[in-house]
Amino acid sequence: MKPAQIQSQLQRVLSEAISGLRDPRVPMIVTVERVQVAPDYTLARVYVSAMGADMPELLDALTHARGHLQREVAAQVKMRRTPTLEFRSAADSPL
Domain boundaries in the chain? Predict the structure, then answer.
């Protein structure tokens, strides 16, 4: 599968999984702006944004939920190895 296909699948799965989190630090609507996968697929940078959210707190909550989110990815995206998720603010995203 091409990196672009993997990235769009990860974006879809993570958007769904993040909306299901029950953490008070995660607002109702969190947008997964884009996902950037390393060439060897060991790391996936997930760029998120949320209106009026405390970004450091949101990133901390997502990092805390990383294990759960990686299990969701492993269950729904067919890859040989599930990449480690790294959460970043979309505002810091290089284009």
Answer: 3-92
- pLDDT score at 93: 66
This model's pTM is above 0.90: yes
Beta pairing partners, 84:
43
Helix (H) or strand (E) holding 48: strand 43-49
Q: Which CATH architecture has domain 3-92?
A: 2-Layer Sandwich (3.30)
The whole-angstrom separation of Cα 26 and Cα 60 is 10
DSSP codes of every residue in 52-94: T--HHHHHHHHHHTHHHHHHHHHHHS--SSPPEEEEEEGGG--
Note the pLDDT of residue 3. Answer: 85
Rounded Cα distance, 59 and 57, in Å? 6
Q: 48 with 19: CB under 8 angstroms?
A: no
